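Example 3.2
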Amino acid sequence: MTKMYTMGGNTIPMKFSISSKLSLAWSAWFQGSRMSRDAAFRNCVIECCDTSGTPLFCVLPDATFSTTRMVQLHVKRGDESQFLFSTSVDVPLETLTQQVTAIYNARLKVDRLCSEFPELVDHGVTLPPNMQGLTDEQIVDLKLKDEWEERCVPSGGPEFNKDEIGRRNGHAPNQKMKEVLRNTMEEAKALISKKQVVAGVCVTMETVKEALDQLRGGVMIVYPMGLPPHDPIRMEMEDQEDLSGTQASLQVIPVAEAQLWWAAKEMQRGKKLQDYIGKNDKTKIVVKIQKRGQGAPAREPVVTEEQQKQMMMHLYKRQQELKMLDEVEDDSHLHSEWSDRQALKRQFPGPQQHQVGSQEEMTTPPRDTDGRQ
């Protein structure tokens, strides 16, 4: 349905489609308090809400329509939750697979960077590959020299802390710069944390890029001259990392080899998402990502891990109660008066005794007061 609305002297047709059972509350706000009314209207946004204040859709001055209802994907790798991702039902699975895989691999990059930050904080930048693992005497005998030691000096001066492994030069930042790196690392890890799944926060590629930018900014603050080209942190930031032969290489999934599975079905790239889940745009599904050729992933368990823990606790408690009952062998209470089932019966005469007594009274003649019949 199309209606004409006039605000600020401008008449604009706006389209909306919504059930008549809902009462609509239209609100408009303007950007900039000193702008003229006509100019402000060009920047206004009209929002359609239900009675609870939940936004249903927005109508812009150019009569465009955008919905806020999206399909929510709970992405997992195996049985481990990774992140939440929102999309639409009509998205091609080729595009969806690329988006999910890009976010998954970018989160792994942030994790690898955060794993290197503690070493950078404690022992400074990495030594050249030909000097790593050598003792000071061997470096002197071989006449090796770190050309980047004098260039890559942390802000505020270094504090020497020898690396026992011999991987870094030992010129660590001072305490103030260490706090900068630690805080930056914690903020970046919080953005892509798996706890966001419990909180219901969706992760986008912009979120992961923000985490990478924070890490990059923290390094630039502490090391204004940059890191050596052979440092793994710099190589990760420049997408030049070499993961061959490492455990991290097994976790990375190339975009061309990525597959999405839902309900024990492989989601073919030539189709759309609505071909599998229908056209309901308020759906939340669990999607598993893995490499091509690894077969179907394991099905989702019938009960959650928390429910299984509660069931095991209840079973253990019940077993302990039964065990305690089996250990109790004292049955002396069975010989007590209060446990005798025949006690009440012995206290009262039965119906047969009443009947016999009444017959004797009827057959026996009455006696006189002196005892004669």
